[in-house]
Amino acid sequence: MTDSAASTTSALALIADDMREVDAVIAQRLDSGVPLVGEVSRYLISAGGKRLRPALLLLVCGALGYRGPQRFNLAAVVEFIHTATLLHDDVVDESTLRRGRATANQSFGNPASVLVGDFLYSRAFQMMLQANDMRVMEILAEATNVIAEGEVLQLMNTHDASLDEAGYLRVIRSKTAKLFEASSRLGAVLSGSASPVEQACAEYGQALGTAFQVIDDLLDYDGNTQEMGKNLGDDLREGKATLPLIAAMQRGSAPQRELVRHAIEQGAADELDAIVDIVRQTGALEVTREAAAAEARRAIACCDLLPRNEHTAGLLQLASSLLERRH
């Protein structure tokens, strides 16, 4: 086990009992009179994953001393929202592999994936009503809307080789980091924290989510399919100008820039080996990893406003683990 995996495991062990309660809520709320709804939902959720978004909510609640049952309900809500986005993402991206096995759209077809994703969104909104808190509703409604905007923005940027780092970050802060941010902020709201603490928690989540996605994009050019649980080169096939490619074009020679530009515009995954060589030769991997490290350090700094306890230490471990993430 790598140091990164050990740190993540240690942080998640703090909330293992809480997560079992969340799993019970998930199982209960996946119940539907339509068998295919439960079948598709359980297929994707049972695939595992670190469940980082609900974990963030639980860790922040622990750090700030909230022990009420609403943390289980809202942790399940953010997992449902995340799962819905995965179902829709895989249809849009025509993905075939996630977390080491066939995607839901590959197994059940696109119509079922889209419609079950809709079910999970609507079930999440039913569940968030139980909090009976307009602030909670506001946070989750805004996050869901921003995520949808990020998805559309990413679609608009597909095959656009002129995308710069600012445009790239705008997409991932909307599409990926927003739900991390909302999860952390919800923990502070449930705990009744003062505004500076709430904002620090929200910024922690945003920074952590940004670092997580930047590393994920890096590993598309510096990982392996077995460890990642997805097909390497998918980003290139989908025409996504992620940070490794943006940095490679900034630092490469004219022929290298032209090859990367062509690959993005054409979705030329058959040129993956050549593109990987360019990304490595130009130092784009190091540029990308440093961008992720800067976000991880930003997350770590946000913990200064939190009480010193084992759950805050877990949040620090999670951020630190991203500095060494390899899958």
TrEMBL record:
Top enzyme class: transferase
Q: Name one GO molecular function term.
A: all-trans-octaprenyl-diphosphate synthase activity
* Family matches, as InterPro entries: Isoprenoid_synthase_dom_sf, Polyprenyl_synt, Polyprenyl_synt_CS
Membrane-spanning regions, if any? none
Name its co-factor(s).
Answer: Mg(2+)
Q: Which domain of life is it from?
A: Bacteria
Keyword Glycoprotein appears in the UniProt entry: no
Catalytic activity reported: 5 isopentenyl diphosphate + (2E,6E)-farnesyl diphosphate = all-trans-octaprenyl diphosphate + 5 diphosphate
- EC number, as in UniProt: 2.5.1.90
Q: Does the keyword Transferase apply?
A: yes
- A single GO BP annotation from the record? isoprenoid biosynthetic process
Q: What does this protein do?
A: Supplies octaprenyl diphosphate, the precursor for the side chain of the isoprenoid quinones ubiquinone and menaquinone.
Family statement: Belongs to the FPP/GGPP synthase family.
> What is the name of this protein?
Octaprenyl diphosphate synthase
Organism the protein comes from: Ramlibacter tataouinensis (strain ATCC BAA-407 / DSM 14655 / LMG 21543 / TTB310)
What broad taxonomic lineage does this protein's source fall under?
A: Bacteria, Pseudomonadati, Pseudomonadota, Betaproteobacteria, Burkholderiales
